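Our preliminary data section would be incomplete without showing what the modeling component actually yields. Below, a chain of 174 amino acids is followed by its predicted structure, encoded as tokens that our downstream tools consume directly.
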Amino acid sequence: MFLKGNNISLRPMEISDVDVLYEWENNTELWHVSNTQAPLSKNVLLNFIEDSQYDIYTVKQIRLMVVENAGKKTVGAIDLYDYDPQHDRVGVGIYIHNEFTGRGYAAESLALVTDYCFKHLYVKQIHSLVNVTNEASIRLFEKAGFEKTGLKKAWIKIGYDTFEDAIFFQKIRE
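Predicted structure:
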């Protein structure tokens, strides 16, 4: 395991993750938060997994799989994206499968990855963009010490002519 907490661990993607990624990435109910417009084939996902083996300095992103320590079941993923070493910042996004929500896995994942970003990547700040209707994510980032620093009006298209505002969160290393 890459990063280990009390209840979950974060690890790099493996080829064996292709089936669960195929299910998650092709869930049309999640497309508005992942900027997905079309289904992804297993071949595309296999290429994504293989390409992700490079370091964050090369591909500017990392996807880590969230795995239960007890049952070793993959329950979600946490992404670091838009890594910018010049300005010492990185974005973070979290997905925990519905079957496993409410167990504190997202909070523990966010704490582990925040620690990793500040202590190993030496970034100054971590940011995230959250739809205003995503109350669970808003609570998650607030409890994790992220500050609401902006509101992007009509930022995320969720239907033919329907848009949602998005909250910009930041956590800045002291």
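Strands lie at 3-4, 8-12, 62-68, 74-84, 89-96, 125-131, 147-159, 162-172. Helices lie at 18-25, 31-34, 42-51, 56-59, 105-121, 135-143. Preliminary results of this kind motivate Aim 1 of the renewal.
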